[in-house]
Amino acid sequence: MPLIEVSDIKKDYPSHHGTISIINGVSFDVADSDFVAIIGPSGCGKSTMLRIMQGLERPTSGEVRFRGQPVLSCCNDMAMVFQSFALLPWLSIKENVAFGLTARGWSPEKISSQVERYISVTGLVGFEEAYPRELSGGMRQRVGLARALAVEPAVLLMDEPFSSLDALTAEGLREEVLQLWRDPDLPPEAVVLVTHNIEEALLMADRIVVLSHRPSRVLAVATVDLPRPRDRKSEAFYQLTDYLFSLITEGAPSPAATPKAPLEGSALAASGAGAKTLPDGTATAPGATE
Prior knowledge:
Helix content: 25-40%
Strand content: 25-35%
Structural class: alpha/beta
Shape: globular
Largest sheet: 7 strands, mixed
Order of helices and strands: EEEHEEEHHHEHEHEEHEEE
Strand order of the largest sheet: 6-7-8-3-9-10-11
Distance between the termini: 26 Å
């Protein structure tokens, strides 16, 4: 059984000009120990999809299941890291990290121990009494990460968490998130990352869900089979970047995609019908679906 099952999700919003369809029949799974990235054009509903997965927003139709159970309200086994940090400016760093634990009714002693642990894990020691306005963007995002990890979620949802950071800071935080994900003694079990950055998705994820323009459908669920740490200067990395870029910008008409294992000998396999040949002409990945 997958950790998360996203089944035929549709999301519409009312407007003065009638109903606007944002998501139209999106399905994919997240397995234990998975790192999944969701990419697609701006406005295709990537962030909305994350909120629906956690239960912060209800779909118009379709269903999300966590460990086999429908997600009907906010799922406490998932935690979100936001693009805008979403810290409470009147609270200290220590209090921001403790916020979710306090809301869950943990004892003061347990909260103190948990906050201390995740402040240490995320490199915030010495900043416990500081306020968000006193920190750089990278440090504020560390606070957001510590707050999410403190509740020890099974799934960490990340909504473009590095997009507002400078390149060097973003690179360091990406590696730290990967280290946390690989550590069996720390949460989470799985990570779902929304990003508009194809290179970032390839650097971090094992599988990539590619969405179409609004109303979004799954173009492909691609499995990335590159060794870690990944070399963004390698020929295979360039090929995959080009493939995913062309997939988003061009798409392909065929039935909805479902995850499959990588093709033998290829760096990437995208499920669905209609193969696309990679630039070197050697391996093919089944084509995008829309």
